[in-house]
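Minutes, structural biology subgroup

Action item carried over from last meeting: produce the structure token record for AAA family ATPase (Candidatus Amunia macphersoniae). EB confirmed the sequence was re-checked against the source entry. Recorded below for completeness.
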Amino acid sequence: MLLGNDHPAVGALAGRERELGVALSGLTTALRSEPRILILLGEPGIGKSTLARAMLDVAARQGMASASGVAIDDAGAPPYWPWTQIFRRLDAEIGIAGIARREDLARDLGAIAPGVFGDATSSGDRFSHFDATARLLRSASVRRPLSLLIDDAQWADEASVLLLRYLARTMSDGRLFIVVTARDTDRTAQEIFGDTVGARIATTLHLTGLDANAVRVQLGAIVPRDIEDGELATVMRLTGGNPFLVREVGHQIEARALSPSDVTVSPSVRTAVEARMAPLPQRSARVLEAAAVLGLEFRVATAGHMCRIREEDALDDVDRLVAARLLERVEAGTWRFPHALLRDAVEARLSTSRCIELHRAAAEVIETEGGNRALKRFELARHWAVAALTGERARAATAIEAAAREARGQLAYETAGRLYRQALMTGATEIDDETSVRLWLGAGDAAARVADHAGRFDACNEAAQLARQLGRPDLLADAALAMSPIGPDLWTAATRRACAEALAGIGAGDLSLRARLIAHDVETHLYSAELYDFEPATRQALELANRCGDADAMAGALRVRQFVLGGPAHVDERAALAASMLTEGRGRGLPHLELQGHLALVDVELERGNLAIAAAEIDAVGAAAALMRDRHARFSELTARAVLAMAHGRFDECRRMAAQAFAGYAAGGDPNPFLLRSAVLSNLSHHAGVEAATLHAIEEASRPVSGEDAGLIQSLSDARVLAQAGRIEEAHTLYAGAGPAETWRPPPHVEMLTMALGISVARYLGRRGDAALLRSRLLPFRGHHVVCGTGAVAYLGPVELWTGVAARAAGSLDEAISDLEVAATTSHIVGTPGFEAEAKLELAGAVLDRAAAGDVPRARSLVAAAARVAGRLGAHALEDRARAVALRLGSADGALSRREWEVAQLVAAGHSNRGIAQQLFLSERTVQNHVQHVLNKLDASNRAQIAAWVVRRIEQRSE
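Output recorded by EB:
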């Protein structure tokens, strides 16, 4: 056994042979540079920490550098506290701070463990810090394998758990073994760890009570006599095989046997603590109580000063407490409770007044001590929050706000938000309204950072109400600008009202604030048809920003101006706007504005069909994203690369880029960008075929995650995928829910996308009138390519492809052929083979519909060319459509089901849907769906073409 027979944990691990085997297997795998995470779950005292620490000892014997961190049930614990402890110990053992400096990672790691790596100097994007942590652990493990322990993770702050989740998702190599323990009595493992539980590199073990044989072994290590069977049965009944409770009972029966009727022996931790404290001097008991208030670990000097005794005397008391098995030494000057259950039991003995007295004493002592100021802020916040119950609420609120700001600086936004709200509750009526506004805005900012949109709205709205009561338009402006511009009607109405009232109240000379408020108000309309009406407002915001020269005002004004000009009629103006962004960004040293300029040019060049230039701009976006270490920029880059790959027919690359973009967001702890992932995969399916991942993506995107309603564009995109997958009835429902096509008034940036998607769905569903109407709205933009005007999330080929499809669906065949010929030529020139093949297939269908002299040979040639390209690209949807056109040409076997063939024959015989329904005993809706399936499979536009095909098939069969 790797532990060795003399190891102190050998007896304690009796009965854990299976779990130990699984753990050792994971450790062995990790040593092969395949990272592993072992999650140990179970009730308090069940032996999770014992097994975990034993594994770290085994790892150390294998030459691994080991380090542990304990999360504590303490609202005053600093963010990333378990990781801070781990990195401290790794620095002492392998000098990990030096490794971080050599790898140029220290500036990103300062937010995780500032005492080890120094202060953070990177952006406010948590992803870069998580990524730096993963890179550091991977790099360090090359030098020496690492084994880490996060103990009591059920108490870890949210940011610490998110970091663990990131590692579980992204670590694919490195000699790294992480053991995590957690109680699952109050929350499930899924609730604590999220998707870490199901990660490829993670294994979960649930520890239960020991069996009687293991309990006998454990008692044998404590009790100096043989344990009778009856006595063992009583211990099992009292403890349920819980190792901690078994030990407690074992110590109680060392000197005498336990009978079934003995009521003096109890597995209660509270009882055990009382028994151990009873013979202690009163001063020692006071030191223990002070220690319990300080936490699981504590400094002896602090506990002594709280009790107003010298450190030397406090050390004497600590020696007594160690002898009573109530404390154990960690390092010089620092001690801890052997188990969180013991600390909890000591704290539970305290009366409310005694508890408040000790927390106040702790706060006052810590304020005078030296040490890490950042860590002290969190300790002080916890202690003052309790001490304030008997006074000095404003002082307590100040201490808690300082901790909130510290958490915000460490990007621990969940902790920051909780602390800002705690400061408000603690300060209550003793803090003034201006301070309350500041705290509410802090809470709102923290909520925004973790996409808690409801929390953001509530906090900012509270700040706005207080600003109104104070008659402070400047504070109201701060609240307005902190409010989300996108969300449910209630939220946007509140934001607009706050912007309007602030604009009415601030002076005309505050150009920067006026520009920002105007831009923010316009932003509340970005996804509505009303956006067209705000062009003058965006011009005004830009003029004010230019006059004042404020960078934030300029960035905001340019952003909303870009959206207002997002339609195809303004592509040249958007190009000029992008040039302004680049100039202003470079001239003012604003990398985010420069990045926005490159992104805007990607959209412009895609719309112009200059895909090579768009690719160069995407490279510029990638370089900027790497330099800024900005996750949002990286997401935009990867999404644009996915779109470009799809346009060029590189489908595997498209899937890979989309997956990387999505994974980056998910790992950072933010809500996944479901809508954008759905858009990319939905457009990919148009050529590559509908995959399970695409259907899953559109189902996820339909769940509200941000209060933002994608509305019309999402409905049409989803309807197209469902229709393509043969789920015609569901597509009908979504399409009908979008309202009559003549009422559609999408925002400018998705104008062409809306019309193209609408045409695609209308054709699937046989809505010839809608197709004609939507074509008329696209006609002015011939020569453009169908894209989103403010974000490279889609490329759907030349406009002529969709005007051609619509003309064919409406029966205007000469116009369809003309447009589709242009689409095929254009796609060939710009290098989009999938769209060239699609245009040729549509063209083949159109000439077959026209049936003029020479059309059949031409159609046959077009289909053959398109089929070859589709096969080379792996464009399965295009291959299916090629087979459908070939079916009409009589060069392929039938693809209709038996029922569809029956329906087709009845259509050819001139029966209506009602007549077919009566003959086949079906509902009219079912017949309608069958007819639509036949039309789609035959690439036919109307019932007459079905009839002609049926006649030809019957003739071919009779020959």
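Discussion: The beta strands are 36-42, 65-70, 146-151, 176-183, 202-206, 297-299, 328-331, 334-336, 785-787, 795-798.
Next step: EB to file the record with the rest of the batch.
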